[in-house]
Amino acid sequence: MPCVADWLNNPFSIVQGIFAQNVPNSDWEKKVTEYFKEKLKENNATNWVPSLNDVPVHYLKPNSLVKFRCMVQDMFDPEFYMGVYETVDPNTNARVLHFGKYRDVAECGPQQEIDLNSSQTVTSERQTFYCVPVPGESAWSVVVLNLQFYAYTSASQARVSPSTSYTPSRHKRSYEEDEDMDLHPSKQKEQHMGNSRSGGDIHGCVEPKRLETEASAGHHLISPNCSPPLDLNFPLPGEKGPACLVKVYESWDSFKVNDVLEVYGILSVDPVLSIVNNEERDSSALDPMECMDTAEEQRVHSPPASLVPRIHVILAQKLQHINPLLPACLNEEESKTCEYRNLAPLFVSNFMSELSPVRAELLGFLTHALLGDSLAAEYLILHLISTVYARRDVLPLGKFTVNLSGCPRNSIFTEHIYRIIQQLVPASYRLQMTIENMNHSRFIPHKDYAANRLVSGVLQLASNTSLVVDETQLEQGQLDTTGVHNVTALGNLITWQKVDYDFNYHQMEFPCNINVLITSEGRSLLPSDCQVHLQPQIIPPNMEEYMNSLLTAVLPSVLNKFRIYLSLLRLLDYSISDEVTKAVEEDFVEMRKNDPESITADDLHRTLLVARFLSLSAGQTTLSRERWLRAKQLEALRKARLQQQKCVNGNEL
Amino acid sequence: YLGPPPAALRRFRRRLRACLCLAAQDARSPPSQKRRTEDSTSTGDLQPMPTSPPADLQSPSGPDALFSSPPQFRHAAIPLDFDISSPLTYGTPSSRVEGTPRSGVRGTPVRQRPDLGSARKARQVDLHSDGLAEDVVATEQSLGQKLVIWGTDVNVASCKEKFQRFLQCFIDPLAKEDEDIGLDLNEPRYMQRLEEINMVGEPFLNVNCDHLRSFDENLYRQLICYPQEVIPTFDMAVNEIFFDRYPDSILEHQIQVRPYNALKTRNMRSLNPEDIDQLITISGMVIRSSQLIPEMQEAFFKCQVCAFTTRVEIDRGRIAEPSVCKNCNTTHSMALIHNRSMFSDKQMIKLQESPEDMPAGQTPHTVALFAHNDLVDKVQPGDRVNVTGIYRAVPIRVNPRISNVKSVYKTHIDVIHYRKTDAKRLHGVDEETEQKMFTEERVEMLKELSKKADIYERLSSALAPSIYEHEDIKKGILLQLFGGSRKDFTRTGRGNFRAEINILLCGDPGTSKSQLLQYVYNLVPRGQYTSGKGSSAVGLTAYVMKDPETRQLVLQTGALVLSDNGICCIDEFDKMNESTRSVLHEVMEQQTLSIAKAGIICQLNARTSILAAANPIESQWNPKKTTIENIQLPHTLLSRFDLIFLMLDPRDEAYDRRLARHLVSLYYRSEEKMEEEYMDMAVLRDYIAYARSYVNPRLSEEASQALIEAYVDMRKIGSGRGMVSAYPRQLESLIRLAEAHAKVRFSEKVETIDVEEAKRLHREALKQSATDPRTGIVDISILTTGMSATARKRKEELAQALRKLIQSKGKTPALKYQQLFDDLRAQSDTAVTKEMFEEALRALADDDFLTVTGKTVRLL
Fold first, then answer.
1. How many CA atoms lie within 13 Å of A483's alpha carbon, on the beta-carbon side?
2. What's the CA angle centered on B176, arms B175 and B179, to 5 degrees?
3. All domains in chain B, ordered by first residue
4. Range with the lowest mean pLDDT among B292-306, B461-475, B480-494, B704-718?
């Protein structure tokens, strides 16, 4: 029986074993997946598997088991490979069967040759996905994952080092120490800001580890052909992290572009793969069979393995959410197959019991952040737990785009609001709507037919990413064609929750689920579901200091609770009883009677949305009469504010 | 070295497949089933391969003459060289000398078919020579009938004979006239094609695999499974027949058969390893094509020492350079002479899945195509094509010096036949692609559905279920989706009658107009969605641009042309500027677009229905004004809309209540529940597509009578008040609507009920949009002249009153404007607004009675 280290460090030996036992029939493949599934179910074994998100590729052992949390950015064509092949020794004529699954190269011994004409050869099919780390993933989420991994690896007796040579500095810390560190968030922040994928540049301190990655990446870029650096195609500018070619062997039809996956598979960084490229490029002039692809396509589809490693997937699972503080799957049915079988319901019920204090605390926190405006804070909570839960024909239900108007112009306020949101949600991005940005950045992903890949754009984001659009940055000026397209795309995203990817000859729409928050001075030029005008109660003399102290004041454990709160409530179900339906009907009819001009179906839509999120934010899964009234009250307050604002503006004019 | 094609592997797989095919056949035919069981008892796991079915059935010893067990087979299959009538010699240089013993064939050079791969030696196996079959005495069978090409069950002679019979006898029972212009449908179809080849001199014969299948199922199967062997056989057969008939014909090279429409695969996504080396047909869009690549077919070598020359053919993509001169035995003396070698053209093309075939949320797949010789440059990027070809997989070598092989195969398709699916778009309706979509069960299901009495209501409620009520509007849009019947009066000089129905939605903001448009846009395959605010005239029509690479002028089509045969949804129609709107005039009635720009003068088809949405001019509907006044659109444009619907906020308690209930339900019901209730969008889409392509209703006698009556009624209403109010355009609208309604029922005849519904809908729409706000009477003249009859009367009266007033003032050359206005107001018994007064002045000015300059009115 292979020991623990085996299935982690040398999964091929396991596969070979199973393969050898079952070779004549083809169910060895099923047995392999079952074996690894079982292994990973064992007490938190998933945490032992080194993650590609975290450990630089060159520290990981080739052909070992790794995990990778990623978003499917592009899908390449399916490829046919030799599932089973036979080698023959020309001297002894001895024939050996091998499996080609989970491999890029059909290997054979020094004295052997592959018999391409063998009758035993089985041709199979697999699909390649180009995956990138979840765009805009928050620094804290990565940190939490790291902590989990190192906590388990250091605590376990059968300690498995992710690789032979790499011992990260944090590795030596015990879990307790980490907890301890959590108590000093400023220290923690400094430590991890380098990890931040966006907006972390203020601190400017880059961890040594990152430097190493960059250095090594840079090295590969310069060598050997001096070709321009490969664009790794991250949706958001300035992102770093491993991109990966993920080879999927089963049910690839169930995965979609922009899905967030967690894959467990065998890492392949065979340097031969890089040789393949060079060879092909050189010989392409000679061999007509191999000049099918342009050099550009070659570069993109088979980049050097050291830069874009391959993962041969044994297990892949779609993630409902990317918050590492929550169990991976919370659904009843799904959790049956999930390793956290017993944990999920317990976790939820535990958390639900202390929901209201958390909500109160969060409200207080956000009220402070929004300069004492509790109404805006209330709406911000509703916005943060909103999610598209269904689509009726073309109409997405459950989107709740908030336009926070009245933000002070040209101040760091919006930036800090974003930093706070970044601390709360697992993935976020701040889009600065400057004329230049709108005219020059790539919003809509488009297909590059020369390289045969989908070139990513800012709007290619995973589900439930928070997109903070900062309109206060916008000056008067001229939008060019790209700019107009970008603004239209942004508008479509908000209204229909879909992005039309540009395939040159046609467009294709990809539904998405992105929470958009627009900060603006007056009413935004973008459409929104609801506009809240900010009414600051306090004007801090030094915004920077005020905001920083706000973040440092909140305990990390509390911060974690906020994070769980926001992610968890999004996943809850919701219903309205017949009784309340009646009441709502009555209400609506009544309102229309009194004021037919200003109350429209849209208002009812919005109030229902507010009611929905209001109930959910209190952990209630049905609408009660009180919540409905509260929702109406909130709406009334909000509207009064807008009215008031209009009057003020009118007077000024 | 490691040669690319794993030939034996392929053959082996092929054999297995042949057995599978057999097994499949067996399931259908009991006699062979019996045979099979007999066999399996005696011969083990590998199933026997029949020679040719007729021979098999006749001969009791047939099954026994086959191979028995696999290992033995592999060793025993040392081929005998049989040259008679075998494709062995086909396409090799030697055949150029020998040829077939016919003069015509000999005179015409053979051209290699790189699309079938290099002329690989297809070995035939004589089943008799198999050592294991020796104990069986097969006396009755002739030698020829037992020859099969190794690894297949193809018998060359019988295959050839069958194909010749097919060519000579096949008459397509389902042929439609428009498909084959100039063909006599009662004569063998392909013989006429051969005659065409003789006349035109294009040595290619396109064969529809569907025809072949209906003629001989087994031959079809062989073609699909072993195209590489069967197509050369077909070529041979065709040439024999052709040169038999037209011995004096001179062709560039021998005729090549190009099968198309193999039903094996339609979708790129469904390609899998089993399709390798089979004949497949897939559809897709060309996204990239390479430069022309010259590929060496035959190398010419010359000895440097003794000038001895030799030719070497390409074998699996390689040329084996002779190392020794056969003549003088000098080593390494042979040099390649380039300009005497033979090359063929080759092109790499990338084909991408068509957007319709793609599952939501995935990116399209691509596949590489290799086109050879004549097919090079036949397609351009952007073309939608159906490609028939052979699917290939080739292993990739890591390095010639390393024995490791990359475990991935490269796949491509060798193109045999292209068929552009959008080629006809400029000429006629492309029915081809849409027809193929439906399986028989689907058609049954749709027909079943069409028989339901409430199908019309069902469909209309399935349309955008999330949008509440507006039943009539949905019905109108439904009819628009179906469209009327296309009528061609070109011969009588009236040109095409428009079959498309145009609809204008007009109403308050927030009445889900955009949502309806979005829904329709998502529903129809060729829909376009534009916003009036953002689109320019060129964006809608077409523009000419210079390709930066080739410096060629290219016509880029706009939304209207792109939505040919579809629906163009235009949101914010009112915000569109005047010049842009004016291009719609031609589209909406003539259904064409004329372009004269940068030296390109052309007329493009734009048979598109237009679904437009407009907001009232004051953004909120003013009930005191007419539609015209509310939308402020030129009435020339308005009259081109068949239906104009108002979407108004009803402000009615019962409505509010229902609306509230509907909205609340949106917010808690799960998605599955919603879907149960309504018809699936896919079903609706199929239903419409089916009706559009198959149902062409014609007016029945009663229906035309009813239409005449309806029209006369409409005219009467107008004539009663002394003016014409209904125009032939309205009659045409009625006909279209009635036809569309008949299509909903899948009825080939327009009946009275269709006319009734058309009338009702027309009236409903009119009632809303053409009601004279002052009298409450429906008045079509509002649409046609922009003014209601009463308003016109009133205006005239006022002008007359003003004239009298001025005349009564005597001979004053100039009058004060304000003074006149006040006088008129004092005199008139109804309220006279300033606008009305100005209008009256303008009317008088038009009559050259007076002129208005500033604040004074001068008499003329």
1. 13
2. 100
3. 145-260 (3.30.1640.10), 278-420 (2.40.50.140), 787-859 (1.10.10.10)
4. B480-494
Give, for A551, the enclosing helix (H) or strand (E): helix A543-553
Tell me whether residue A63 is in a domain. Answer: yes
Condensed to tens digits (0 to 9), the pLDDT of residues A451-488 reads 888 888 888 988 888 999 888 888 887 777 778 888 88
**pTM of structure:** 0.70
Report which DSSP code applies to A231: P
Q: At what angle do helices B30-43 and B7-28 cross, to 10 degrees?
A: 130
Give dist(CA B274, CA B277) in Å, integer: 8
CB burial string B146-173: b at 16+ within 10 A, e below: bbbbbbbbbbbbbbbebbbebbeebebe
Residue scoring higher pLDDT (A633 or B45): A633
Contact between A499 and A460 under an 8 Å Cβ cutoff? The reply is: yes
Strand A310-318 versus strand A260-268 pairing type: antiparallel
Measure Cα distances from B760 to A239, A306, B474, B504, B725 in Å.
61, 71, 14, 17, 18
> Which residues span the domain enclosing A312?
46-155+236-274+294-318
Pairwise CB contact (< 8 Å): B664 & A608:
yes
Residue-wise DSSP of A387-429? ---EEETTEEES---EEEE-PPTTSTHHHHHHHHHHHHSSBEE
Which H, E and C letters describe A448-501, residue by residue? ECCCCEEECCCCCCCCCEEEEEEHHHCCCCCCCHHHHHHHHHHHHHHHHCEEEE
Distance CA B123, CA B149 (A): 6
Whether the Cβ atoms of residue B286 and residue B397 lie closer than 8 Å to each other: no
The residues that bridge with A502 in the sheet, in sequence order, are A446, A507
Which chain B residues are within 8 Å of A123, Cβ to Cβ?
A: 273, 276, 393, 409
**For A450, which residue in chain B has the nearest alpha carbon?**
B288
Choice among A35-44, B147-156, B287-296 with the minimum mean pLDDT:
B147-156
Q: Which of A29-33, A293-297, B805-809 has the highest mean pLDDT?
A: A29-33
Q: Looking at the predicted structure, is the pLDDT value of residue A125 above 60?
A: yes
Nearest to A274 by CA among A324, A352, A237, A219: A219
Q: Comparing C-alpha atoms, which of B411, B165, B102 is closest to residue B278?
A: B411
Neighbours of A297 (CB within 10 A): 19
Which band of pLDDT confidence, cut at 50, 70 and 90, is reported for residue B171?
confident
Q: A100 and B396: CB-CB below 8 Å?
A: no
Touching B: A residues 469-488, CB under 8 Å: 484, 488
> Is position A147 within any domain?
yes
What pLDDT score was predicted for residue B291?
79
Residue A528 lies in a domain: no
Residue contact A82–B651, C-beta within 8 A: no
Would an 8 Å CB–CB cutoff place A349 in contact with chain B? no
A281-293 pLDDT per residue, tens: 444 333 444 445 5
For A186-221, write each residue's pLDDT tens digit: 444 333 433 433 333 333 333 333 333 433 433 433
- In tens, the pLDDT along B74-98 reads 333 334 343 334 343 333 333 333 3
Q: How many domains does chain A have?
A: 1
Task: Identify which of B520, B788, B474 has the alpha carbon closest to the alpha carbon of residue B645.
Answer: B474
Question: With contacts defined as CB-CB under 8 Å, which chain B residues touch A106?
Answer: 404-407
Tens of pLDDT, residues B322-368: 888 877 877 788 888 888 888 888 888 888 887 777 777 788 888 88
Chain A interface, best mutation among B69, B285, B407, B519, by max A CB count within 10 A = B407
pLDDT band at B544 (very low <50, low <70, confident <90, very high): low
* CA dihedral angle for residue B834, residue B840, residue B844, residue B850, rounded to 10 degrees: -20
Report if residue A94 sits inside a domain: yes
**What ipTM does the predicted assembly reach?**
0.73
The tokens for A642 are: 């807008």
